[in-house]
Amino acid sequence: MWMLYIATAAAFLLDQASKAFVLLGLNLAQLGQIEVVPPYLNFRMAWNYGMNFGLFAQDSPMTRWILIAVAMAIIGFVLIWIRCEHPRKIVILAAGLLIGGALGNVIDRALHGAVVDFLNMSCCGINNPYAFNIADVEIFIGAVGMAIFGDQKNAT
Question: Which among 15, 108, 136, 151 is annotated as catalytic?
């Protein structure tokens, strides 16, 4: 379980450090946008009150706490699953990424009322209007890793 805790802590700290850097170091909340490597990478401030792509994005305390509760339930489910199934190390690492990213977004909701999104990427003539954060990447990689490598029949 130590690997799960280290992966979770590393993912959480990387996410929170990146958000502190753009909010406090770059003052992105006031600037709104910083072109880093346009159009491929921009920092674009977005307070996400909902889920992915702004789904359920109502700025209400009820929505905020429901989304926190859902995230905590998912974290709890993953922890129980890890303890019961004893998956391979790569699955434990993936679970740590997912949990650390989810905790990062939960902390955002608790402290700011919304998730701090700031990464915006576009390419090849497609203008992406959405922003995301490091936690979103960690959650995605963690979920995909758990889905791909989580089959016990393939365990060695």
Answer: 136
Taking residues 31-39, what's their average pLDDT? 94
117 given a catalytic annotation: yes
| pLDDT for 153 | 53
Whether 8 shows a pLDDT value over 50: the answer reads: yes
87 sits in the region (left: phi over 0; alpha: psi -120 to 50; else beta) called beta
Active site residue 59: no
Question: How far, in Å, CA of 57 to CA of 36, rounded?
Answer: 27
Cα 91 from chain centroid (whole Å): 17
Instruction: Spot the catalytic one: 15, 59, 108, 117.
Output: 117
In order of 25, 95, 116, 120, the CA distances from 51 in angstroms are: 26, 20, 12, 16
Distance in angstroms (rounded) separating the CA atoms of residues 11 and 7: 6
Query: Cα torsion at 56, 109, 42, 9 (round to 10°)?
Result: -130
Sign of the alpha-carbon torsion through 122, 127, 132, 136? negative
